[in-house]
Amino acid sequence: MSTAWINFINELDPNGKEDIGLPKNETWPKYDRTAGGGVGRNIVWDLDGAFVEMDDWRAEGINWMIENAMTVFGT
Length: 75
What we know:
Blueprint: H1 2-11, E1 41-46, E2 49-54, H2 59-73
InterPro entries: AB_hydrolase_fold
């Protein structure tokens, strides 16, 4: 995780040139909710390593925030 943060700070890309602990051929995905049917993908850091999964367990809350951001936070 710390390597990913350092990569992001230095290169604006958490993947960088160093191994960040993901399985082979896997990279930290850009969060894009339009590419996954309304949900993005994120990294789960676990004791057994890290993996990428669909971020759908909080989709309802994320969609509410997107739809109501201007009302809640203003301009």
